[in-house]
């Protein structure tokens, strides 16, 4: 019998794009294309100083996005990371300003970040309140705490032993870039080679199945949000170190960049699918896009519109490809 048009095999390009679909590959192609376009659009993009500054900026977003990947893989969301950036940097700066040793101030700042993450995880895993509502509330709590502690003013005059990390270089690259690489390697190992990583993916696939398997779902969720809080805290300390002050308004809107990096990197917003590699590439895409729009003197308000459309576009592409596999 002759095959009908509905029975014909898909074409070669269709089979290649769907059988071998890798979100990080698509994201990588997008990053290269965006970089090429900007290199022609503005002569300043490939300037060495701009590229170094770009790498420093991206490192802060990428660190937060690495933690956000864990959260989104479970089917959750964390809107509090921008506020955690602020509260960590502000409190750590205040501790140093009061005469506390730098090392202890940093540890206490990170402890505060983890407490926020654990609080998110405990509330989300023990109640029926959606993650978006819980983390929206802690976003407000964190920002308010930073403003109250600092009276709304930056806390400056920090020790050089602290500011050298955010401003310093190791070889040709800023120190925050090496921190980003170290966190990327660590999170990649955790998510791909540990039982915890497998549980994170499984939660995003079917939480009920994971629960029936006897796995401690509440514990996994709490750890996931704790990781997100910790990495946001590290980014907050690096930012305070680079600025030389704790800024209560720091990190405003960074949750959008972190979510955008994760989604653009190919992670399914519903959970269960995605990679850390894709997230890092996504962070570079968002960073390059921000940098390019600034170099082209695009209004900051229009930049928000562009990033919003980028997120929607990435979700639509991801959904379309997965649906047709």
CATH C-level class:
Mainly Alpha
Q: Give the helix/strand class.
A: mainly alpha
State the helical fraction. over 70%
Indicate the CATH architecture: Orthogonal Bundle
- The geometry reads as globular
CATH topology (fold) name: ABC transporter involved in vitamin B12 uptake, BtuC
Span of the ends, CA to CA: 27 Å
The structural domain count equals 1
Spatial sequence of strands, sheet with the most strands: 1-4
What percent strand?
under 5%
Low-confidence stretches: 1-20
Question: What string gives the helices and strands in order?
Answer: HHHHHHEHEEHHHHEHHH
The total count of strands amounts to 4
User: What is the overall pLDDT average?
Assistant: 87
Number of helices: 14
Cα Rg:
21 Å
Major sheet attributes: 2 strands, antiparallel
Describe the structure.
There is one protein chain. β2 and β3 form a beta hairpin. α3 packs across α12, α3 packs across α13 and α4 packs antiparallel against α5. The relative contact order is 0.19. This protein has 325 residues and is an all-alpha fold. The N terminus is likely disordered. The longest helix has 27 residues. It has one domain: ABC transporter involved in vitamin B12 uptake, BtuC.
A few lines on this structure:
This protein has 14 helices and four strands. The chain has 325 residues and is an all-alpha fold. Helix 4 (81-97) crosses helix 11.
